[in-house]
Structure formats: C-alpha cells, structure tokens
C-alpha cells in the first residue's frame, strides 16, 4: 500500500462540500493537512504506513490557508490531522475551532506538559532552539541572553527577521511571558535601535548576513545552522567556521524553543487512524527521524540526537508553557507596531 495517496485539496474540499463527512471516511486511511514543507518528512509517512498499513492522503499548504479551509469546510471537512510549525499557529487552529480534544495515554505520557495544549487539542512533536549566532572575528563578547540584544554596545550589529514572521512573534511572546509587557517593549525597542539593516529574509539569510559582513549578530532557529553542518547550504557552509553561537539565558529562563506539532481535526472522519498517526509521531522511531531528517530536537525527552544536532552542544531550554506563550502573540504584534519593527 502506498504511503502517500495524492489527492488534491480541491478534490477533498469538493467531496466535503458535496455531502456528509462520511464521504471522506475510508478504512485504512488518514487525511493529513500539513504546512510542514520538508521533503525529508516523506520517511515519516512511509514508515507509518509500513508499520500500520494505513495510507496517508497528504494535502499541503500554508498554515493559515489550511486553517481557513478547515473552517470553511466545517462539519464536512475531510481533514483528520493538522500538522504545522510554531505554537502560535497551533493555538490559532484551536481558537478557530478546527481541532478537538483527544484522549491518548501515549501522548500524555511521552510529550512533556509544557509542549502540549492544556485541553489536549494539540501536541508538540519536534523543537528548534531560537538562539544567538555571531561573527567570531568581530564579536568577542556575544550576548548571553535575549535581553542583551538590546544593549547599546551592539548598535548597528544585529540582523533579524521581520515582525510578520511567526518565529519573531513567538519569541517576543515568550519575552512577554517571562519578563512582562513593559520589559518586552523596552527590549523590542532596543533591538530595533541595534539593527544593522531593515529586517529581511528567512533564518538562513540571517546566517548569510554574518558571512557577508552585513551584520555581526543574528538570531536563527538551530535547525537552519545544523543543516549547514550536515550538508552544503549556499552562503553558509563554506564559511561555517566563522560563525559562533550562544544558547541564551542559561542562567535564567533558558533558550526559547520553537515548536512544530499537530492536532486531530474537529470533525475527523477517520478519528481512530488520526490518533494512531499522532501517537506514531511521538514514538522513538519518528522522534529520532525528526532529528536525523530535519535537524530538529525531539519533543520526547532522552531520544538520541543526530550528529549535526549533537554538535550544537547541551543547553538548558526554556520550560515556559508554550500554550501561554501563544496567547501573547497579539500583544507581541502590538509591541512590534509601536516600536517600528517592520
């Protein structure tokens, strides 16, 4: 049986809008809506099918588009599982009413409490630490925590992504949760004052900025850098030895963790298979592949790391409840607007 049955999003939607949700039910299948865009995830799906005999019908799209489509499809949605990146999007799906609470002793036992929704509507399956990278030739005293990024001594040295990016939003939302809104606003203003250039590009572009000399300090998720250690990434790998890194706030809250996870759709026609797939993603086999295939940190404790991720070293992660962090995203966006963080 094929691990992936290609069904277009339009076709599935047509089925849903044309009749009851049962039209999307199929014994031995699960309909996955995913905004994870990594080719390496193919291995996760093929292994699941090999183990269970359950075919995955995968539909890909941007997270907000998939959430909006699930809302529009309503009770007739064919979606069984939603996978997406970042806590804010998982919480957005919950708030939109497109996920449901599930009972799973496996997920409860294996996924740490701070990496799952308090109502069991979503669970984290992999993590990335959002940390400080710097040019070793130009920076002898890199920032040791997030607060230090606002220190005037780093004026004109910092590269960062735009405020519209979910990674930026969730980091500031975590600063709000850990330090309060007033301190978070002062921090955001200080970082803007220290920008080497206007925010642009993705995380890999922030690393390229260090190599090219556009900036001396940048923020990126660890898996972008670990990927450059494992294989050739244009503009980074050839000069990777020039880049140093710091896991921030090791004497305080710990390094901010960005989450990738999923939940069972509110009207899942293949509910039992959906829960089986979610539980599989928490298995040692799948957790190890998140690290080996996409250079991420497993959500389940004590799972072996890939060589590229291990090279980053041990660190203390921020154990803040990410469901609370997600609720701070609107306040974070308001602060971004107020301080002129584009």
Produce a short descriptive summary.
The chain is α/β, with parallel strands linked by helices and 342 residues long. Helix content is 39%, strand content 16%. The longest helix has 14 residues.
Overview of this protein structure:
- This protein is of the alpha/beta class.
- It has two domains: 172 residues, Periplasmic binding protein-like II (D-Maltodextrin-Binding Protein, domain 2, 3-Layer(aba) Sandwich); 154 residues, D-Maltodextrin-Binding Protein, domain 2.
- The chain is 39% helix and 16% strand.
- The protein has 14 helices and ten strands.
- Strands 1, 2, 3, 4, 5, 6, 7, 8, 9 and 10 form a ten-stranded mixed β-sheet that branches.
- Strand 2, helix 2 and strand 3 form a beta-alpha-beta unit.
- Helix 6 crosses helix 7 and helix 6 crosses helix 14.
- The longest helix is centred in the middle third of the chain and has 14 residues.
- It is globular and about 60 Å long.
- The termini are far apart.
- The N terminus is likely disordered.
